[in-house]
Amino acid sequence: MTDIQLIENEETNSMKALIGDVRTIIDNGLRKAYENVSKEMVYTYWQVGRRIVEEEQHGAKRAEYGKRLLNTLAEDLSKEYATGFSARDLRNYRQLYLNFNDLEIWYARVPNLTWTHYRSLLRVEDANARYWYSILNDSKQLFASKYLTFMPTQEELRREIEQQKEFFRLQHES
């Protein structure tokens, strides 16, 4: 190889390394931006749900008032924001607040999940199952290593919790 070829080879390798580093920086930035947008979106939905619940609690004949309230609100918001504020969406936001209305729990657990997680959780009727799920999320290692695209059964969840407790106990005895 000539000196010129060696220099060109070094420049090519340097450029490839630069491109790889810049891609990593961009990918990390995009991931963090998406996570922050997702957290803000969920928090916004929670606040909308809270406001709806507060309004309903002041209305007469709650059932009829609540139905009219959601339909009117959805119609108006959909004109301005197009998607994400149908009556069905507003009912989901209301349910989000009703199921996760404790601010301490909210700040500790809720922002760590995406809206997709919450839509799945809102379908779970058992409040204990929902609770054991925001708790498993506290363990970042467990959550990341056991991420599922579906909700486990109560028995699967109990078994996993017991395994993790035993693992934790063994780690701390050493």
Explain how this protein is built:
The chain is an all-alpha fold and 174 residues long. The protein is 78% helix and 0% strand. The protein is built from 8 helices and no strands. The model is unreliable at 138-146 (pLDDT under 50).
Query: What about the largest sheet?
Result: none
Secondary structure category: mainly alpha
Percent strand = under 5%
User: How many H/I helical runs?
Assistant: 8
Features:
174 residues; mainly alpha
List the helices and strands and how they pair.
Layout lengths: L2 H56 L3 H20 L5 H13 L3 H6 L6 H8 L4 H7 L6 H6 L8 H20 L1
Helix pairs in contact: 1-2, 1-3, 2-3
Question: In a few lines, what is going on in this structure?
Answer:
By secondary structure, the protein is mainly α. The protein has helices spanning 3-58, 62-81, 87-99, 103-108, 115-122, 127-133, 140-145, 154-173. The model is unreliable at 138-146 (pLDDT under 50).
